Amino acid sequence: MPQTKSRFVVAVDGPSGSGKSSTSRGVAERRGYAYLDTGAMYRAAAWLVLQSDLDSSEQELVSKLIEQADLGIGTDPAGPRFTVNGTDVTEAIREPVISASVSAVATNLAVRELLIARQREIIAAADPGIVVEGRDITTVVAPDAQVRVLLVADPSARVARRKNELGGVVGDDDVRDQVIRRDRDDSTVAQFHDAAPGVTVVDSTELTLDEVVDRICELIDQVHAGSGSPSS
Ligand SMILES: Nc1ncnc2c1ncn2[C@@H]1O[C@H](COP(=O)(O)OP(=O)(O)O)[C@@H](O)[C@H]1O
Ligand SMILES: Nc1ccn([C@H]2C[C@H](O)[C@@H](COP(=O)(O)OP(=O)(O)O)O2)c(=O)n1
User: Fold this and answer.
1) Most exposed residue of 1, 3, 19, 56, measured as fewest CB within 10 angstroms of its CB?
2) Where do the annotations place ATP binding (predicted)?
3) CA nearest 119: which of 36, 13, 32?
């Protein structure tokens, strides 16, 4: 989708626990941009399926259900809120039951088509800019973004971060399922392990969150300074 010159789009992809959400929010807050968590959209869709009588294997019915739903997608980096048919699901979509079931909805290609169209509408309406994070943003949703980043981190760091985030109440096997198994399932429909041409790889394993935000802001500055594509 072509973007107007004045709208600045930062696309961030990467596996679970690489730091996409925290980093993207940090960049958006620093620059006064909107923030779109596309994973939250798939989580909201998974929440709706769990509330219904449908099984996620009933792919056509699931996509119809999601097509007819009213999804409210917040883009405030200070605390985006999400609603499904008027119900606030912001906290509910972070529950382990959603993390465990979301890939089954996210691998439904008809659902992806619906949500990608919505993501492009949100990007097109952003002013003056937006940071968009997910798995297929640099490659499918916004391949013409001015800054495109693949954020990676060693699997052990990603599992440790997620474990820490969940406050130790979730067992090691469940954390590994949420990170490693989910990435394996998700990577059947989105390519986020290798950088596409023109995408800058940022490895956050040995960097603090602030350092990663700095790095992406530097890439934005390079584009503003007219030094062209900041790919490395
Ligand atoms: N560079 C970093 N160093 C240490 N911890 C980080 C870093 N980036 C993110 N985190 C932490 O790791 C966890 C997962 O980060 P998150 O942004 O949710 O990743 P993702 O969106 O890629 O799944 C969070 O608890 C976050 O605070
Ligand atoms: N653009 C996207 C974003 C997320 N997904 C899938 C992949 C994940 O299993 C779910 C939830 O994504 P989310 O970014 O919240 O996942 P994390 O828990 O941050 O790792 O959605 C996707 O397929 N495409």
Assistant:
1) 1
2) 14-22
3) 36
Token digits of residue 15? 């596996």
Q: Is 14 annotated as a binding residue?
A: yes
pLDDT in tens, 168-193: 778 888 899 889 988 899 888 888 88
Mean pLDDT of 120-132: 97
Contact 127, 7 (CB under 8 A): yes
Q: Which one of the ligands is nearest to 182 CA?
A: 2
- CB contact burial 18-39 (16+ within 10 A = b; e otherwise): bbbbbbbbbbbeebebbbbbbb
The candidate with the shortest Cα–Cα distance to 135, out of 16, 26, 7, is 16
Separation between Cα atoms, residue 222 and residue 228, nearest integer Å: 7
Is residue 39 in contact with ligand 2, taking CB distance under 6 Å? Answer: yes
Q: How many domains does the chain have?
A: 1
Question: Looking at the domain assignment, is residue 65 inside a domain?
Answer: yes
pLDDT at 12 over 60: yes
CA distance 155 to 50: 29
Residue 2 has pLDDT above 80, yes or no: no
Tell me the residue range of the domain where 120 lies.
Answer: 8-224
